[in-house]
Protein backbone atom coordinates (compact mmCIF):
# COMPACT_ATOMS: atom_id res chain seq x y z
CA UNK A 1 0.00 0.00 0.00
CA UNK A 2 1.61 3.23 -1.07
CA UNK A 3 1.31 6.25 1.16
CA UNK A 4 -0.16 9.47 -0.12
CA UNK A 5 0.63 12.20 2.32
CA UNK A 6 2.96 14.80 3.80
CA UNK A 7 5.78 13.24 5.81
CA UNK A 8 6.86 15.37 8.74
CA UNK A 9 8.60 15.00 12.08
CA UNK A 10 6.76 14.24 15.27
CA UNK A 11 7.34 17.77 16.65
CA UNK A 12 5.46 19.35 13.72
CA UNK A 13 2.71 16.74 13.62
CA UNK A 14 -0.04 18.64 15.46
CA UNK A 15 0.66 21.96 13.75
CA UNK A 16 0.56 20.41 10.31
CA UNK A 17 -2.62 18.55 11.11
CA UNK A 18 -4.31 21.81 12.22
CA UNK A 19 -3.27 23.44 8.96
CA UNK A 20 -4.81 20.53 7.03
CA UNK A 21 -8.05 20.95 8.99
CA UNK A 22 -8.62 24.42 7.66
CA UNK A 23 -8.34 23.14 4.08
CA UNK A 24 -10.84 20.34 4.35
CA UNK A 25 -14.58 20.47 3.71
CA UNK A 26 -17.08 20.91 6.53
CA UNK A 27 -18.08 17.25 6.35
CA UNK A 28 -14.53 16.16 7.26
CA UNK A 29 -13.70 18.95 9.69
CA UNK A 30 -15.08 17.22 12.78
CA UNK A 31 -13.14 14.04 12.20
CA UNK A 32 -9.91 15.97 11.66
CA UNK A 33 -10.34 17.74 14.97
CA UNK A 34 -10.97 14.35 16.54
CA UNK A 35 -7.69 13.14 15.10
CA UNK A 36 -9.53 10.50 13.10
CA UNK A 37 -8.32 11.31 9.60
CA UNK A 38 -4.76 11.92 10.67
CA UNK A 39 -4.58 8.66 12.52
CA UNK A 40 -7.58 6.44 11.62
CA UNK A 41 -6.53 2.72 11.75
CA UNK A 42 -4.17 0.53 13.78
CA UNK A 43 -1.57 3.26 13.89
CA UNK A 44 -0.04 5.09 10.94
CA UNK A 45 3.45 5.81 9.71
CA UNK A 46 5.59 8.15 11.73
CA UNK A 47 4.25 11.65 11.21
CA UNK A 48 2.06 10.75 8.23
CA UNK A 49 -0.89 12.92 7.20
CA UNK A 50 -3.39 12.78 4.37
CA UNK A 51 -2.59 15.06 1.50
CA UNK A 52 -5.47 17.18 0.29
CA UNK A 53 -7.73 15.08 -1.94
CA UNK A 54 -6.82 15.40 -5.59
CA UNK A 55 -9.55 16.09 -8.17
CA UNK A 56 -11.30 12.87 -9.12
CA UNK A 57 -9.64 10.89 -6.30
CA UNK A 58 -13.02 9.90 -4.85
CA UNK A 59 -14.45 8.64 -8.16
CA UNK A 60 -15.58 5.04 -8.32
CA UNK A 61 -12.82 2.67 -9.44
CA UNK A 62 -13.72 1.33 -12.90
CA UNK A 63 -12.62 -2.27 -13.59
CA UNK A 64 -13.58 -3.99 -16.87
CA UNK A 65 -15.51 -7.26 -16.63
CA UNK A 66 -12.91 -9.06 -18.81
CA UNK A 67 -9.37 -8.50 -17.63
CA UNK A 68 -6.05 -10.07 -18.49
CA UNK A 69 -3.36 -10.41 -15.84
CA UNK A 70 -0.14 -9.24 -17.46
CA UNK A 71 2.23 -9.62 -14.53
CA UNK A 72 2.96 -12.56 -12.20
CA UNK A 73 0.30 -13.10 -9.53
CA UNK A 74 2.51 -12.81 -6.45
CA UNK A 75 0.08 -11.27 -3.96
CA UNK A 76 -0.85 -14.55 -2.28
CA UNK A 77 2.83 -15.52 -2.05
CA UNK A 78 3.98 -12.43 -0.21
CA UNK A 79 5.87 -13.27 2.92
CA UNK A 80 8.21 -11.68 5.40
CA UNK A 81 10.54 -9.81 5.24
CA UNK A 82 8.28 -6.73 5.11
CA UNK A 83 9.23 -3.14 5.86
CA UNK A 84 6.44 -1.08 7.45
CA UNK A 85 7.08 2.64 7.85
CA UNK A 86 10.77 1.85 8.14
CA UNK A 87 10.50 -1.07 10.59
CA UNK A 88 11.24 -4.62 9.42
CA UNK A 89 9.06 -7.68 10.08
CA UNK A 90 10.99 -10.92 9.59
CA UNK A 91 9.97 -14.49 8.92
CA UNK A 92 11.07 -15.31 12.46
CA UNK A 93 8.60 -12.75 13.81
CA UNK A 94 5.81 -14.55 11.96
CA UNK A 95 7.00 -17.99 13.15
CA UNK A 96 7.06 -16.90 16.78
CA UNK A 97 3.59 -15.35 16.64
CA UNK A 98 2.12 -18.42 14.93
CA UNK A 99 3.65 -20.62 17.64
CA UNK A 100 2.08 -18.36 20.27
CA UNK A 101 -1.38 -18.81 18.71
CA UNK A 102 -0.99 -22.57 18.42
CA UNK A 103 0.10 -22.80 22.06
CA UNK A 104 -2.94 -20.76 23.13
CA UNK A 105 -5.07 -23.36 21.35
CA UNK A 106 -3.40 -26.28 23.14
CA UNK A 107 -1.34 -27.15 20.09
CA UNK A 108 -4.40 -28.17 18.04
CA UNK A 109 -2.94 -29.33 14.68
CA UNK A 110 -4.12 -27.58 11.54
CA UNK A 111 -3.91 -28.48 7.85
CA UNK A 112 -1.26 -27.02 5.55
CA UNK A 113 -3.74 -24.77 3.75
CA UNK A 114 -5.05 -23.42 7.05
CA UNK A 115 -1.50 -22.88 8.26
CA UNK A 116 -0.77 -20.74 5.19
CA UNK A 117 -3.91 -18.71 5.85
CA UNK A 118 -2.93 -18.35 9.51
CA UNK A 119 0.54 -17.12 8.59
CA UNK A 120 -0.94 -14.54 6.21
CA UNK A 121 -3.28 -13.31 8.94
CA UNK A 122 -0.44 -13.15 11.46
CA UNK A 123 1.61 -11.09 9.01
CA UNK A 124 -1.30 -8.67 8.65
CA UNK A 125 -1.55 -8.46 12.45
CA UNK A 126 2.16 -7.71 12.74
CA UNK A 127 1.84 -5.00 10.09
CA UNK A 128 -1.04 -3.46 12.04
CA UNK A 129 0.93 -3.59 15.29
CA UNK A 130 3.87 -1.85 13.64
CA UNK A 131 1.58 0.87 12.28
CA UNK A 132 0.10 1.34 15.76
CA UNK A 133 3.48 1.62 17.41
CA UNK A 134 4.86 4.04 14.82
CA UNK A 135 1.80 6.28 15.02
CA UNK A 136 2.02 6.43 18.81
CA UNK A 137 5.68 7.45 18.47
CA UNK A 138 4.74 10.14 15.93
CA UNK A 139 2.20 11.56 18.36
CA UNK A 140 4.76 11.49 21.20
CA UNK A 141 2.93 8.72 23.07
CA UNK A 142 5.55 6.02 22.61
CA UNK A 143 5.17 2.90 24.75
CA UNK A 144 8.33 2.47 26.80
CA UNK A 145 10.17 -0.75 27.52
CA UNK A 146 9.23 -0.34 31.20
CA UNK A 147 5.53 -0.12 30.26
CA UNK A 148 5.79 -3.37 28.30
CA UNK A 149 7.78 -5.18 30.99
CA UNK A 150 5.29 -4.21 33.71
CA UNK A 151 2.37 -5.57 31.66
CA UNK A 152 4.33 -8.72 30.75
CA UNK A 153 5.19 -9.42 34.38
CA UNK A 154 1.59 -8.86 35.46
CA UNK A 155 0.38 -11.15 32.68
CA UNK A 156 2.81 -13.86 33.77
CA UNK A 157 1.68 -13.89 37.39
CA UNK A 158 -2.04 -13.15 37.06
CA UNK A 159 -3.02 -15.02 33.89
CA UNK A 160 -0.43 -17.80 33.60
CA UNK A 161 0.40 -18.28 37.29
CA UNK A 162 4.13 -18.20 36.55
CA UNK A 163 7.08 -15.97 37.29
CA UNK A 164 8.32 -13.86 34.33
CA UNK A 165 11.32 -16.17 34.02
CA UNK A 166 9.07 -19.25 33.93
CA UNK A 167 6.90 -17.60 31.25
CA UNK A 168 10.08 -16.86 29.24
CA UNK A 169 11.03 -20.53 29.39
CA UNK A 170 7.52 -21.66 28.45
CA UNK A 171 7.40 -19.40 25.39
CA UNK A 172 10.75 -20.72 24.19
CA UNK A 173 9.55 -24.29 24.75
CA UNK A 174 6.55 -23.85 22.41
CA UNK A 175 8.66 -22.28 19.66
CA UNK A 176 7.81 -18.66 20.41
CA UNK A 177 9.69 -16.02 22.40
CA UNK A 178 9.14 -13.35 25.07
CA UNK A 179 9.92 -10.73 22.42
CA UNK A 180 6.92 -11.84 20.34
CA UNK A 181 4.46 -11.53 23.22
CA UNK A 182 6.00 -8.23 24.31
CA UNK A 183 5.62 -6.89 20.77
CA UNK A 184 1.93 -7.71 20.88
CA UNK A 185 1.63 -6.01 24.26
CA UNK A 186 3.41 -2.94 22.88
CA UNK A 187 0.98 -2.75 19.95
CA UNK A 188 -2.08 -3.07 22.20
CA UNK A 189 -0.83 -0.38 24.59
CA UNK A 190 -0.03 1.93 21.67
CA UNK A 191 -3.48 1.42 20.15
CA UNK A 192 -5.14 2.05 23.51
CA UNK A 193 -3.29 5.35 23.87
CA UNK A 194 -4.22 6.43 20.35
CA UNK A 195 -7.88 5.74 21.02
CA UNK A 196 -7.75 7.57 24.34
CA UNK A 197 -6.39 10.71 22.68
CA UNK A 198 -7.87 10.69 19.18
CA UNK A 199 -11.20 8.88 19.47
CA UNK A 200 -12.65 8.60 22.96
CA UNK A 201 -12.76 12.37 23.76
CA UNK A 202 -14.88 12.95 20.65
CA UNK A 203 -17.47 10.23 21.26
CA UNK A 204 -20.50 11.28 23.26
CA UNK A 205 -23.66 9.62 24.54
CA UNK A 206 -26.44 11.86 25.79
CA UNK A 207 -28.24 11.26 29.04
CA UNK A 208 -31.51 11.21 27.10
CA UNK A 209 -30.27 8.22 25.07
CA UNK A 210 -29.31 6.38 28.24
CA UNK A 211 -32.62 7.20 29.94
CA UNK A 212 -34.58 5.96 26.92
CA UNK A 213 -32.67 2.68 26.84
CA UNK A 214 -32.98 2.26 30.61
CA UNK A 215 -36.76 2.81 30.42
CA UNK A 216 -37.08 0.23 27.66
CA UNK A 217 -35.10 -2.26 29.73
CA UNK A 218 -37.26 -1.70 32.79
CA UNK A 219 -40.34 -2.26 30.68
CA UNK A 220 -38.86 -5.49 29.36
CA UNK A 221 -37.80 -6.89 32.74
CA UNK A 222 -37.83 -10.66 32.53
CA UNK A 223 -36.82 -10.77 28.88
CA UNK A 224 -33.59 -12.44 27.80
CA UNK A 225 -30.17 -10.79 28.05
CA UNK A 226 -27.14 -12.19 26.24
CA UNK A 227 -23.42 -12.35 26.83
CA UNK A 228 -21.94 -12.58 23.35
CA UNK A 229 -18.46 -12.94 21.94
CA UNK A 230 -17.82 -11.57 18.44
CA UNK A 231 -15.04 -11.81 15.89
CA UNK A 232 -15.42 -9.14 13.21
CA UNK A 233 -13.64 -9.50 9.86
CA UNK A 234 -13.89 -6.52 7.51
CA UNK A 235 -14.34 -7.14 3.78
CA UNK A 236 -14.79 -5.27 0.53
CA UNK A 237 -16.58 -6.59 -2.55
CA UNK A 238 -13.17 -7.58 -3.93
CA UNK A 239 -12.05 -9.45 -0.80
CA UNK A 240 -15.45 -10.87 0.19
CA UNK A 241 -14.81 -14.48 -0.86
CA UNK A 242 -11.33 -14.65 0.64
CA UNK A 243 -12.49 -13.17 3.96
CA UNK A 244 -15.47 -15.55 4.08
CA UNK A 245 -13.19 -18.57 3.53
CA UNK A 246 -10.84 -17.30 6.23
CA UNK A 247 -13.80 -16.96 8.59
CA UNK A 248 -14.86 -20.53 7.86
CA UNK A 249 -11.36 -21.77 8.68
CA UNK A 250 -11.42 -19.89 11.98
CA UNK A 251 -14.80 -21.40 12.88
CA UNK A 252 -13.59 -24.90 11.94
CA UNK A 253 -10.55 -24.53 14.17
CA UNK A 254 -12.62 -23.34 17.12
CA UNK A 255 -15.06 -26.23 16.69
CA UNK A 256 -12.08 -28.58 16.89
CA UNK A 257 -11.14 -27.14 20.26
CA UNK A 258 -9.50 -23.80 19.48
CA UNK A 259 -9.92 -20.97 21.98
CA UNK A 260 -12.45 -18.31 20.96
CA UNK A 261 -10.65 -15.75 23.11
CA UNK A 262 -7.31 -16.46 21.44
CA UNK A 263 -8.74 -16.27 17.92
CA UNK A 264 -10.65 -13.08 18.74
CA UNK A 265 -7.49 -11.41 20.05
CA UNK A 266 -5.55 -12.31 16.91
CA UNK A 267 -8.12 -11.99 14.12
CA UNK A 268 -10.98 -9.71 15.17
CA UNK A 269 -10.90 -6.18 13.82
CA UNK A 270 -13.38 -4.88 16.40
CA UNK A 271 -12.22 -2.89 19.41
CA UNK A 272 -13.26 -5.82 21.64
CA UNK A 273 -10.37 -7.91 20.28
CA UNK A 274 -8.23 -6.89 23.28
CA UNK A 275 -10.75 -8.55 25.65
CA UNK A 276 -11.18 -11.69 23.58
CA UNK A 277 -14.20 -10.44 21.64
CA UNK A 278 -16.43 -10.29 24.73
CA UNK A 279 -19.27 -7.77 24.24
CA UNK A 280 -20.41 -8.20 27.85
CA UNK A 281 -24.06 -8.54 28.87
CA UNK A 282 -26.27 -6.90 26.24
CA UNK A 283 -29.84 -6.86 25.06
CA UNK A 284 -30.36 -8.26 21.61
CA UNK A 285 -31.15 -4.78 20.21
CA UNK A 286 -27.69 -3.54 21.19
CA UNK A 287 -26.16 -5.63 18.41
CA UNK A 288 -27.68 -2.99 16.12
CA UNK A 289 -27.87 -5.31 13.14
CA UNK A 290 -31.07 -7.20 12.23
CA UNK A 291 -29.17 -10.21 10.89
CA UNK A 292 -27.05 -10.61 14.02
CA UNK A 293 -30.08 -10.05 16.25
CA UNK A 294 -32.02 -12.83 14.51
CA UNK A 295 -29.11 -15.26 14.77
CA UNK A 296 -28.19 -14.48 18.39
CA UNK A 297 -31.79 -14.71 19.63
CA UNK A 298 -31.91 -18.44 18.84
CA UNK A 299 -28.39 -19.33 20.04
CA UNK A 300 -27.76 -21.41 23.16
CA UNK A 301 -24.82 -21.02 25.59
CA UNK A 302 -21.70 -22.57 24.12
CA UNK A 303 -22.95 -22.31 20.53
CA UNK A 304 -20.76 -20.88 17.76
CA UNK A 305 -22.26 -19.45 14.55
CA UNK A 306 -20.65 -17.86 11.51
CA UNK A 307 -19.28 -16.35 9.47
CA UNK A 308 -22.39 -14.16 9.13
CA UNK A 309 -22.33 -11.55 6.38
CA UNK A 310 -23.12 -8.02 7.56
CA UNK A 311 -22.49 -4.59 6.02
CA UNK A 312 -18.74 -4.10 5.79
CA UNK A 313 -17.68 -7.69 6.41
CA UNK A 314 -18.46 -10.83 8.43
CA UNK A 315 -19.14 -11.64 12.09
CA UNK A 316 -18.58 -14.84 14.02
CA UNK A 317 -20.75 -15.06 17.14
CA UNK A 318 -20.18 -17.15 20.25
CA UNK A 319 -22.95 -17.33 22.84
CA UNK A 320 -21.09 -17.22 26.15
CA UNK A 321 -24.23 -17.16 28.29
CA UNK A 322 -27.80 -15.85 28.52
CA UNK A 323 -30.08 -14.78 31.37
CA UNK A 324 -33.33 -12.94 32.06
CA UNK A 325 -33.09 -9.18 32.50
CA UNK A 326 -33.51 -8.14 36.12
CA UNK A 327 -34.31 -11.67 37.26
CA UNK A 328 -32.26 -13.96 39.47
CA UNK A 329 -30.52 -16.73 37.53
CA UNK A 330 -30.99 -20.15 39.18
CA UNK A 331 -27.52 -21.13 37.97
CA UNK A 332 -26.06 -18.56 40.38
CA UNK A 333 -27.35 -20.61 43.32
CA UNK A 334 -24.54 -21.54 45.70
CA UNK A 335 -24.45 -25.26 46.37
CA UNK A 336 -22.96 -27.53 48.99
CA UNK A 337 -22.09 -30.80 47.26
CA UNK A 338 -20.50 -34.15 48.02
CA UNK A 339 -18.92 -36.14 45.21
CA UNK A 340 -18.95 -39.89 45.77
CA UNK A 341 -16.52 -41.65 43.42
CA UNK A 342 -15.92 -45.31 42.61
CA UNK A 343 -12.80 -46.50 40.78
CA UNK A 344 -12.47 -49.94 39.20
CA UNK A 345 -9.60 -52.35 39.93
CA UNK A 346 -7.04 -52.68 37.16
CA UNK A 347 -7.81 -55.59 34.85
CA UNK A 348 -11.51 -55.84 35.72
CA UNK A 349 -13.45 -56.98 32.60
CA UNK A 350 -15.66 -54.35 31.01
CA UNK A 351 -18.89 -56.27 31.59
CA UNK A 352 -18.10 -56.52 35.30
CA UNK A 353 -17.33 -52.78 35.44
CA UNK A 354 -20.66 -52.02 33.79
CA UNK A 355 -22.51 -54.21 36.28
CA UNK A 356 -20.60 -52.68 39.21
CA UNK A 357 -21.44 -49.14 37.98
CA UNK A 358 -25.13 -50.01 37.81
CA UNK A 359 -25.03 -51.54 41.31
CA UNK A 360 -23.17 -48.45 42.62
CA UNK A 361 -25.92 -46.19 41.27
CA UNK A 362 -28.58 -48.18 43.14
CA UNK A 363 -26.55 -48.25 46.37
CA UNK A 364 -25.88 -44.49 46.54
CA UNK A 365 -29.58 -43.78 45.94
CA UNK A 366 -30.22 -45.57 49.24
CA UNK A 367 -27.79 -43.44 51.31
CA UNK A 368 -29.96 -41.49 53.81
CA UNK A 369 -28.51 -38.02 53.37
CA UNK A 370 -25.16 -36.29 53.61
CA UNK A 371 -24.57 -37.20 57.27
CA UNK A 372 -24.30 -40.90 56.43
CA UNK A 373 -22.51 -40.45 53.12
CA UNK A 374 -18.93 -40.84 54.34
CA UNK A 375 -19.52 -44.02 56.33
CA UNK A 376 -21.65 -45.78 53.72
CA UNK A 377 -19.43 -44.72 50.84
CA UNK A 378 -16.48 -46.33 52.62
CA UNK A 379 -18.44 -49.56 52.92
CA UNK A 380 -19.04 -49.42 49.16
CA UNK A 381 -15.33 -48.95 48.47
CA UNK A 382 -15.95 -45.37 47.27
CA UNK A 383 -14.31 -42.05 48.20
CA UNK A 384 -15.99 -38.77 49.19
CA UNK A 385 -14.90 -35.17 48.64
CA UNK A 386 -16.95 -32.04 49.37
CA UNK A 387 -17.34 -28.45 48.20
CA UNK A 388 -19.50 -26.02 50.18
CA UNK A 389 -19.20 -23.01 47.86
CA UNK A 390 -19.75 -23.95 44.24
CA UNK A 391 -22.31 -22.34 41.94
CA UNK A 392 -24.54 -24.40 39.67
CA UNK A 393 -23.19 -22.62 36.59
CA UNK A 394 -19.68 -23.88 37.47
CA UNK A 395 -20.86 -27.46 36.86
CA UNK A 396 -20.86 -29.06 33.40
CA UNK A 397 -24.01 -28.11 31.49
CA UNK A 398 -25.17 -31.73 31.48
CA UNK A 399 -25.33 -31.70 35.30
CA UNK A 400 -26.69 -28.19 35.93
CA UNK A 401 -30.32 -29.02 35.23
CA UNK A 402 -30.22 -32.24 37.25
CA UNK A 403 -28.68 -30.62 40.33
CA UNK A 404 -31.07 -27.66 40.26
CA UNK A 405 -34.04 -30.09 40.34
CA UNK A 406 -32.71 -31.99 43.36
CA UNK A 407 -33.68 -31.72 47.00
CA UNK A 408 -31.18 -31.94 49.88
CA UNK A 409 -29.92 -35.51 50.31
CA UNK A 410 -30.65 -36.58 46.73
CA UNK A 411 -28.02 -37.66 44.23
CA UNK A 412 -27.51 -37.22 40.50
CA UNK A 413 -27.53 -40.10 38.05
CA UNK A 414 -24.19 -41.92 37.78
CA UNK A 415 -21.74 -40.23 35.42
CA UNK A 416 -18.15 -40.81 34.37
CA UNK A 417 -16.73 -43.68 32.33
CA UNK A 418 -16.04 -47.37 32.69
CA UNK A 419 -12.34 -46.64 32.06
CA UNK A 420 -11.77 -43.84 34.57
CA UNK A 421 -14.42 -44.60 37.18
CA UNK A 422 -17.94 -43.41 37.96
CA UNK A 423 -19.36 -40.92 40.46
CA UNK A 424 -22.44 -39.08 41.67
CA UNK A 425 -23.07 -35.69 43.28
CA UNK A 426 -25.14 -35.45 46.46
CA UNK A 427 -26.81 -32.13 47.31
CA UNK A 428 -26.24 -31.07 50.93
CA UNK A 429 -27.39 -27.44 50.78
CA UNK A 430 -28.44 -24.62 48.45
CA UNK A 431 -28.59 -20.84 48.73
CA UNK A 432 -30.59 -19.24 45.94
CA UNK A 433 -29.36 -15.97 44.39
CA UNK A 434 -30.95 -12.64 45.20
CA UNK A 435 -33.03 -10.77 42.66
CA UNK A 436 -30.87 -8.88 40.18
CA UNK A 437 -31.47 -5.22 39.45
CA UNK A 438 -30.16 -5.28 35.90
CA UNK A 439 -27.58 -2.88 34.45
CA UNK A 440 -27.40 0.63 35.87
CA UNK A 441 -27.56 3.81 33.81
CA UNK A 442 -23.79 4.16 34.13
CA UNK A 443 -23.29 0.65 32.80
CA UNK A 444 -25.59 1.33 29.86
CA UNK A 445 -23.75 4.53 29.07
CA UNK A 446 -20.47 2.60 29.10
CA UNK A 447 -21.85 0.01 26.69
CA UNK A 448 -23.10 2.66 24.27
CA UNK A 449 -19.77 4.48 24.46
CA UNK A 450 -17.84 1.27 23.79
CA UNK A 451 -19.98 0.52 20.75
CA UNK A 452 -19.45 3.97 19.23
CA UNK A 453 -15.76 3.98 20.01
CA UNK A 454 -15.47 0.61 18.28
CA UNK A 455 -17.09 1.95 15.10
CA UNK A 456 -14.84 5.03 15.08
CA UNK A 457 -11.82 2.84 15.76
CA UNK A 458 -12.52 0.77 12.66
CA UNK A 459 -12.45 3.91 10.52
CA UNK A 460 -9.32 5.02 12.32
CA UNK A 461 -7.60 1.74 11.42
CA UNK A 462 -8.71 1.96 7.81
CA UNK A 463 -7.19 5.39 7.23
CA UNK A 464 -3.92 4.65 9.00
CA UNK A 465 -3.43 1.55 6.87
CA UNK A 466 -4.09 3.67 3.81
CA UNK A 467 -1.33 6.09 4.81
CA UNK A 468 1.25 3.44 5.72
CA UNK A 469 4.31 2.76 3.58
CA UNK A 470 4.63 -1.03 3.22
CA UNK A 471 7.44 -2.63 1.20
CA UNK A 472 7.49 -6.38 0.54
CA UNK A 473 10.70 -8.22 -0.22
UniProtKB/TrEMBL annotation:
Organism of provenance: Paraurantiacibacter namhicola
Pfam hit, one: SurA_N_3
Q: PROSITE patterns from the xrefs?
A: PPIC_PPIASE_2 (PS50198)
Q: Name one GO molecular function term.
A: peptidyl-prolyl cis-trans isomerase activity
Give a yes or no for keyword Transcription regulation in this entry.
no
State the protein's name.
Parvulin-like PPIase
Q: From which domain of life does this come?
A: Bacteria
Looking at the record, the residues that make up the PpiC domain are 223-321
Q: Which UniProt keywords apply?
A: Isomerase, Rotamase, Signal
Stored InterPro entries: OMP_Chaperone_SurA (IPR050280), PPIase_dom_sf (IPR046357), PPIase_PpiC (IPR000297), Trigger_fact/SurA_dom_sf (IPR027304)
